[in-house]
Design a protein that fits this description.
The protein is about 35% helix and about 20% strand. With about 375 residues, it is of the alpha/beta class. The chain is elongated and about 70 Å long. The chain has eleven helices and 14 strands. The chain has a ten-stranded mixed β-sheet. Strands 1-2 form a two-stranded parallel ribbon. Strands 7-8 form a two-stranded antiparallel sheet. Bound molecules: iron/sulfur cluster (SF4). The site of iron/sulfur cluster (SF4) has 12 residues, from loops.
Length: about 375
């Protein structure tokens, strides 16, 4: 009797290294071959088994029959005159996400801003991604792949590898916790790019219990809180998440993070005209800087369609920063990058209708 074996192909990037090694053992592979496979997948970021040239033709064929490599597809790239490059990637199910390459040549810093979710459930009023709702969580490999693709571009365009990663793109990283931590471990692994976690920053809109969990994770990553307003009433108006995670609970979670890890904490503070850029706002902000060492980054707003908020003038931002600095707080002003492209978070992905509009629970 003739039998034919049909394999349903499996996502090979979903395996941990240990699980993949076991899988390969079952196929009779020697350990060093599995190591080669892992290196192709995570160090070289190959898109097909055919590129794994130190594996035999038969082994590549065997892989092809059983597995697939679900890499991102670059859908659109925009180049700003200031060197910023924005990418729109299509996921295997058609959803769009964004990543941004931000070069700061004088400091030799090449940063990628990656997304952790397609869309976002947190509906911050100033954000284009918040208007989309949550479409779905990204997998660790989809987060990792943004690094791989943007790093390729960085090397071609600037002759340099990416030096820093910020989890500040679409989505709330701490609501896709497991996959984000998985991506951080991949990115910092010696069997991957081997990036120092000290050069990675997880940015959160502020989920107190998840900040505590991250502190206990034993990762050396930095943490940024998207603060944007230093009193609860204003913050809740603009960021609904603040109603369940008020400033007091956030301050105690951050204090715990600082004591447990010693890793850097920063506040991101987008300046909105007449809303959070006045002297009383500066005083409130200074008060929130007294609990642990913290650096404040004041950011010029990149207005998005459909938002009622407007950007503060350059003079007002400078004046605000001066008031805070005079109270002994470390503060920098970051000019908005990529003004000539759709650089605000979610703006580019939102242009293209994501295929299914639904809200799913976050993990
Ligand atoms: S600012 Fe961040 S947390 Fe808020 S809606 Fe946008 S992506 Fe989500």
């Amino acid at each position: 009797m003739i039998t034919s074996e049909v394999h349903v192909r499996t996502d090979i990037l979903a395996f941990s290294d240990a699980a993949l090694q076991q899988e390969m053992e079952k196929l009779g592979w020697q350990r060093f071959r599995s190591d080669q496979l892992i290196s192709w997948l995570w160090e070289h970021g190959v898109r097909s088994f055919e590129e794994m040239t130190n594996l035999s033709k038969q082994q590549r064929q065997e892989l092809n029959e059983r597995y697939y490599i679900p890499r991102l597809v670059t859908d659109k790239v925009q180049y700003s005159t200031d060197g910023t490059v924005k990418f729109r990637f299509k996921l295997h199910d058609g959803y769009m996400i964004e990543s941004v390459l931000i070069p700061v040549d004088e400091e030799e810093r090449y940063t990628v801003c990656v997304s952790s979710q397609a869309g976002c459930s947190l509906t911050c009023k100033f954000c284009a991604t918040g208007q989309m709702g949550l479409l779905r969580n990204l997998t660790a490999s989809e987060i990792f792949d943004q690094y791989t693709e943007v790093n390729r571009c960085c090397q071609e365009r600037y002759g340099r590898k990416l030096s820093n990663i910020v989890f500040m793109g679409m989505g709330e990283p701490l609501l896709n916790y497991k996959q984000v931590v998985g991506a951080i471990r991949r990115l910092s692994s010696a069997k991957g790019p081997g990036l120092s976690p000290r050069r990675m920053t997880v940015s959160t809109a502020g989920i107190a219990k998840m900040i505590v969990r991250l502190a206990d994770e034993d990762l050396k990553v930095n943490l940024a809180l998207s603060l944007h307003a230093a009193d609860d009433d204003k913050r809740s108006t603009m960021m609904p998440i603040n109603e369940y995670n008020d400033l007091q609970s956030l301050m105690s979670a951050l204090k715990y993070f600082n004591q447990k890890t010693g890793n850097k904490i920063s506040y991101e503070y987008i300046a909105f005209a007449g809303f959070n850029d006045q002297a009383s706002d500066a005083r409130n902000l200074v008060r929130l800087c007294s609990h642990f060492p913290v650096m404040v980054n004041v950011i010029e707003y990149n207005p998005v369609r459909g938002s009622d908020y407007e950007k503060s003038s350059e003079d007002q931002i400078n004046q605000f920063a001066k008031m805070v600095r005079e109270q002994g707080v470390m503060i920098t002003v970051r000019r908005s990058r990529g003004k000539d492209i759709d650089a605000a978070c979610g703006q580019l992905a939102n242009q293209e209708q994501n295929p299914i509009s639904k809200t799913i629970p976050t993990s």
